[in-house]
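INFO batch 0412 | record 1 of 1 | parsing
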Amino acid sequence: MEFIKILNALLTPVIAIFAVYIAYQQYRINKRNSEYQKEIDLQKINLELFNRRYRIFTETKNLILHLSKYAEVDSKRLSDFITATNEHKFLFGREIEIYLNELYEKATNLSHTNNEQKNIEIYPPHSPQRKELLEKHEELLNWFTTEFENCEVRFIKYLNFRNLEKYYSPT
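INFO prediction complete | emitting C-alpha cells
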C-alpha cells in the first residue's frame, strides 16, 4: 500500500516533467519550421526579384534586337519600352538607369537619322552633310549590333541567382 502511495506521489512530477519535455520538443520543432519558412520566404523574394529584373532585361534585349535588325523604331515602340521598364530605378543600380537612358537616347537618334535619310536627296551626293548623316546612322547601327551582345554583361550581376542577395536594393 505504501508503494502505491509513493507511486501516486511520483506520478504528478513525472507527468509534469514529461509535459515539459513535450513542450520543449514542440518549441524546437516550431523554431526550426520558422527558420525554414524564413528561408522559403527569402527564396520567394529572390524569385520575384529575378522575374521583375528579367522582364526588364528581355524588354531591353528585344528593343536592341529590333533596332539592330530593322534599323528603325517608332515612337509607340519607344513609349512602350519606357512603360515596360519604368520600375528599373527600384530594381537595379544606377548603371542600369544610365544604360537604359543611353539606349533610349540612341534609339531616338536612330529614329531622327532615319527621318533625315528619307530626305537625303536635299544634300548633294558628296556633301559633308550627307556623309555625316550616313556615318551617324552607321555608327548607331553598329552600336545596337554590339549592344545586343553587351546587354547581357551589363545585366548579369543582377540576374545571377548566386548574387541576388547582394543586390536587393539599388545603390
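INFO post-check: Helices lie at 2-70, 75-84, 88-91, 94-118, 128-159.
INFO record closed
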